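dumping this here so i dont lose it
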């Protein structure tokens, strides 16, 4: 089922489900109560559930990359250690370092694929699993979402900060650091920009809520803000964020992609917008190239 075949009310329910405001049963029950053309919208709701078996752009066996799982120390985090998916380009390096930050459900196959794409583009990419202190991504988004919500959120952000410094200081890194992330990872990309100062050179949040505005003055990274057109929760923070970036002289670009919804870059659900996703990724790579090489 493609994007145009799904009723907008089901998309709104799915957004509530993705952000933990309702569970899967409530999502299906409420969708079933919606009538479209005389029929229940339950089939539309079921079509929204991610299918990670399709759409991957770079396979883990791709000869252009060298992927591995790594473990590293994370002082002040949820357990003191972290596990992540490290993907290096073929070759000896050094390479610019990029942290790829997952959504609010742990390191799922989509985010691993994004890390592989970053490596194909010539970056040393680390996709940390914020759930590794509690056993790692459990293989499904519902459990992953509940696990991530139960973590100490300040310590989880510390785990992401430590992950950023790990890949920045890796032996294959050229010492320059960028990050990109999606949804919760987009907000965390903003957090890293205000927290790391001169330790990070570029940040590309996808549909990420703005950081605390009184911290924007600390940003030294060049920012590329990627927004969906139909994303009220995130976009409610956009105008003030952009105004504050301008007031503080932060180097930034901002794009809002027409006819898109929150999650438009994720190929695994009908919210995916191929044209916007490809353009946003091209801009991401160009931005990281410009500031990390």
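and the seq i came up w/
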């Amino acid at each position: 089922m493609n994007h145009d075949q799904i009723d907008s009310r089901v998309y709104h329910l799915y957004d509530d489900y993705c952000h933990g405001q309702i569970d899967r049963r409530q999502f299906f029950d409420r969708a079933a109560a919606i009538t479209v053309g005389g029929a229940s919208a339950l089939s539309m709701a079921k079509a929204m559930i991610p299918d990670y078996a399709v759409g991957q752009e770079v396979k883990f066996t791709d000869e252009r990359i060298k992927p591995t799982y790594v473990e590293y120390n994370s002082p002040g985090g949820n357990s003191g250690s972290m596990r992540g998916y490290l993907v290096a380009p073929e070759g000896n390096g050094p390479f610019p370092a990029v942290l790829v930050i997952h959504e609010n459900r742990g390191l799922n196959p989509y985010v691993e694929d994004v890390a592989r794409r970053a490596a194909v583009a010539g970056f040393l990419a680390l996709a940390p699993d914020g759930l590794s202190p509690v056993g790692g991504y459990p293989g499904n988004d519902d459990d992953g979402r509940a696990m991530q919500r139960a973590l100490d959120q300040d310590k989880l952000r510390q785990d992401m900060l430590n992950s950023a410094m790990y890949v920045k200081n890796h032996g294959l890194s050229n010492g320059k650091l960028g990050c990109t992330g999606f949804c919760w990872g987009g907000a965390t990309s903003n957090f890293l920009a205000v927290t790391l100062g001169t330790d990070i050179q570029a940040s590309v949040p996808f549909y990420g809520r703005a950081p605390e505005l009184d911290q924007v003055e600390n940003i030294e990274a060049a920012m590329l803000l990627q927004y969906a057109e139909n994303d009220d929760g995130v976009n409610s923070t956009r105008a003030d964020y952009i105004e504050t970036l301008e007031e503080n002289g932060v180097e930034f670009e901002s794009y809002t992609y027409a006819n898109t919804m929150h999650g438009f870059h994720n190929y695994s659900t009908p919210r995916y917008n191929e044209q916007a996703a490809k353009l946003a990724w091209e801009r991401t790579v160009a931005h990281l190239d410009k500031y990390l090489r």
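DSSP finds ten helices and ten strands in the chain.
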